[in-house]
């Protein structure tokens, strides 16, 4: 009679593998948002420390790992910058900086950005349009990537 239980356990990635796979992207996002490497490094460490708690409690869905990592990173960056000097009128809002960083810096798709930010695709497109207009008004060169999709 064959054994009904498999002899090998199903493969499950370890938390270390998640860190190796996504730490570069989280560091890039935090660097784009903060423009300070030491703060960005600390935010990256804090992001994975926060996610590790959920991983240890088996509450972390592996398919949602990058989304949760980006959300945690964005939230922590927002908390860090909350006490800093406010933006001047010519600068982008915090939400616009996030969208700009995810679109131009991280080169994510509209559906990915929409999922991360929990906003509709049309709203993300409108924010990107405003970002492009602000960048053009300031004389900033627009990146060549992702422009046709908006």
In short:
With 150 residues, the protein is mainly alpha-helical. It has helices at 15-34, 37-56, 65-81, 94-105, 110-117, 121-137.
* Average residue pLDDT: 83
Per the principal axes of the C-alpha atoms, what is the gross shape?
Answer: globular
In DSSP terms (H or I, runs of 4 or more residues), the helix count works out at 6
Helix fraction by DSSP (H/I, runs of at least 4): 55-70%
Strand content: under 5%
Distance between the termini: 60 Å
The tally of strands reads 0
Sketch the topology as an H/E string, one letter per element. Answer: HHHHHH
Overall SS class: mainly alpha
Q: Report the uncertain regions.
A: 1-11
Sheet with the most strands, sense and barrel status = none
Radius of gyration, Cα only, in angstroms? 19 Å
Give a structural overview.
With 150 residues, this protein is mainly alpha-helical. It contains 6 helices and no strands. It has helices at 15-34, 37-56, 65-81, 94-105, 110-117, 121-137. The longest helix has 20 residues, at 15-34. Mean pLDDT is 83; it is low at 1-11.
Keywords:
150 residues, mainly alpha, 6 helices, globular
How is the secondary structure organized here?
Blueprint: H1 15-34, H2 37-56, H3 65-81, H4 94-105, H5 110-117, H6 121-137
């Amino acid at each position: 009679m064959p054994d009904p239980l498999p002899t090998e356990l199903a493969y499950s990635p370890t938390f270390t593998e998640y860190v190796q796979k996504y730490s570069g992207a989280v560091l890039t996002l935090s660097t784009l948002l903060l423009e300070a490497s030491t703060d960005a490094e600390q935010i990256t460490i804090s992001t994975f420390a926060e996610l590790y708690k959920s991983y240890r409690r088996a509450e972390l869905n592996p398919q949602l790992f990058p989304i949760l990592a980006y959300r945690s990173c964005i939230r922590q960056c927002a908390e860090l910058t909350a006490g800093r000097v406010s933006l001047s009128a010519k600068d982008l809002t915090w939400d616009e900086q996030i969208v700009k960083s995810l679109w131009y810096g991280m080169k994510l798709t509209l559906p990915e950005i929409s999922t991360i930010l929990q906003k509709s695709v049309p709203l993300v497109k409108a924010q990107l349009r405003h970002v492009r207009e602000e960048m053009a008004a300031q004389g900033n060169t627009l990146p060549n990537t992702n422009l046709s999709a908006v």
